[in-house]
Amino acid sequence: MAAYGxxxxxxxxxxxxxxxxxxxxxxxxxxxFAGALLAEVYLHAGQPLAYYLRAAGTDLLHAxxxxxIGGGIWMAIAYRFNRAIIDVVTGGREVTRQEQPxxxxxxxxxxxxxxxxxxxxxxxxTSALNAYASGLNPKQYSVTVTSGLLAALDDxxxxxxxxxxxxxxxxxxxxxxxxxxxxxxxxxxxxELLFRVVFRAxxxxxxxxxxxxxxxxxxxxxxxxxxxxxxxxWIMSVxxxxxxxxxxxxxxxxxxVELTKNPDAMISALxxxxxxxELEGVTSAVMEMCIDxxxxxxxxxxxxxxSIETRIxxxxxxxxxxxxxxxxxLGGGRVDTPMHAG
Length: 342
Prior knowledge:
By secondary structure, this protein is an alpha+beta fold.
């Protein structure tokens, strides 16, 4: 059953990656059509709605090659520089065996034991307790942990966290999350740009052509349609991220236990990380890649991770182990001593 879940997740993630790329271009075309509607209203105010829809459709056909090439260039840039962009946002830096022998050896031993290619190893200097994997291909894959995590967790717990992140890489979760983040960035950029256009067009009232003789209802409806399309496209980009199955975290937890043979270590690591993983100033797209995302969604509907409690109960049910209960936070960011046994 574990193997079935693993290989099913890998195959599913490959399919989802292709679908997400298709969604990226679909959303770009929607924005182009909305922009064309706004442009036609601005240039030819006073026309009936049918005129604007027909003209915007023609504009979209003419713009398709440019929009497709532009989307492809954006993807190429993101493919090449995605890890560097994430590192700029988080402050992550690559470390060597000499700089972090303890961490490096733990990761290397895990990779050797399972025949997994060694990803790059990075550190973020922060007291927060978190970790994530990033990259779109084997040459880019990296595992990043915070200095706070290293200080708070023992070797067995750190090994469990590293196993969790290696499983994300092996399952293809990392590629999927990076692509979803790229889509969110593209759509967010175009949404803001077109909202500014809508605002300016609304304030300026558009330029009436000499042919204008209508009452402006067609222009108002065209602008409303453009506005609705922009909002829907933005909502779709957000839902794409939240539609990514949260089962990836359960499978990564199980993968860590498979790699380390130590369910207790994974459970106690999650307890120490619980509610202590906030990376200040980091975008939501990056937080969604972390082992824990404390930024809860509305009524848990839009939460990107299952709760720590749910993940621990799943581990106990499927892998055994013992739950020490929520941990007490000590001075200096240290985490120790269960608040209660459970």
